[in-house]
Amino acid sequence: MSDRRDLLILGGGLVGMTLALAAAKKGITSHVVDRADPLELTEESFDGRASAISTASWNLFTNIGLAQGLERFGCPIAAIAVTDQMKKGRIDFRPDPHEGSLGRMFENRRLRLALFEAAEREAAIAWHSKSTVVGRERGNHSVSVELAGGQRLTASLLVAAEGRNSPTREEASITLASWQYQHRAVIAALEHEKPHENVAWEIFYPAGPFALLPLLDTADGRHRSALVWTVAERDAPAVLKLSDRAFLAEATKRMDGLFGEITHIGPRSSYPLGFHHTAQLAANRLALVGDAGHGIHPIAGQGLNLGLRDVGALVEVLDDGLRLGLDPGDAQLLERYQDWRQLDVFSVAFATDSLTRLFGVPGRTASAIRRLGMAGVQRAPMLKTWFMDEARGISGKLPELLQD
Asked: What span, in angstroms and rounded, lies between the C-alpha atoms of 180 and 276?
C-alpha cells in the first residue's frame, strides 16, 4: 500500500521535527526520517546543550501548540550584557518591561521531548526513527528514499534537515562556501552562588567568546547557567581533560567573580566551530532548512532561530501553493522560498562572522577601540533597539507562523 505524503523530511532534530509539526497544522503531511534513537536523545546525560529561543521562534512554538507545555521549562532572558574581557565600556541590552523578554533559554533535551511527544500524537506525521537512508531519488513528479530495511518512502518534496554535514545537500551537488574557525565550543552547565538575574553574558576574549546563559534554578533553589566557552582547537583537548576543580578555576578567572563561587559543573562536551553558506536553498524538488543550508558561529545564539525562520517561510510558501492547487514540489514555490530566505540568512551569517573576527583581534589597542565603539552603542538608544529587535528575530518580513 502506497503512503505518499507531501513532504519527505530527512532529519528529525529540532528544525526537522518543528517543520513537520508546523506543516501538519496547515494540513501538510510528511514522512520524517532520522537515524537516531529518540530515547537516547532525550536522556538527561545525552547532551548538555541549551538554546536561546527568540521572540519570533517562541511565537512559532505558540502557533503550533508547543508553548503551553514548554513554558515552565524556559528561563526568560531579561537582558544581554556584552563586554570586552570584563573591562569598562560594556553594552547592556535591556528592553522596557512592557516589551517583554529578549527570548527564553531552554535545555535542548526539553525541546526534543516536547517535539517528539507532539509528533507521536500527530496523524499527519509518519515518523521513521532509527532509520538509515541508503538511496535518494528526485524525479519530475515525485521524490523517494530507500531505507536500510528495504522500505521505500515517497512524497512530493524532499527536505534536507540533516545538519551541517547533510548528505542530501552533497548528493545534490549544491555549492557550499565554508571555512573553519579553528576553535571549539566547550559546553557545560554551571551551578553558582549568586543569581544570574536572567542576564545573558557575552564576554569576549582574544581566544574567543565566553558566554554565560541563564537557566532556571534547580528545584532546591541552586542557581544555574549554561556555559559556552570558545577555545582554540589546539587547546581544546587539554581543556576537556582538566579536572573539575581545575576547569572551575579557569572558568572562575574569566568570570571575574560575576556569579560568586562556582559550586558545581555538569558533564562537559564540545563541538568544532565553522561557517558554511550554500549558494542556493532549493533545487529540483528539494529544499534545505536549518544547518543543512547555513551554519554560523554561536556568538549571538541565532543558529537555531535562523533555522526556525526557514521553517516558517517554507510552510507559508507551501500552504499558499496548495491553496492554488500547486504541487508542494513546484519550482515556483521553491524559488519563492529561496528568494525569501537568502537575504536574511546571508545578513545574519555575515554579521556573526564579522563579530567573531572583530573581537578576535588581540592587543590593547584593538581592545580599547572595541570598548570605545561599545560605549558609543551604549549611548545610542535607537541603535540598541535595532540590535534587540534583531535578537528577538522580529525584524524584516516574518512568516505568519512567527508573528504574535
From this structure: 9
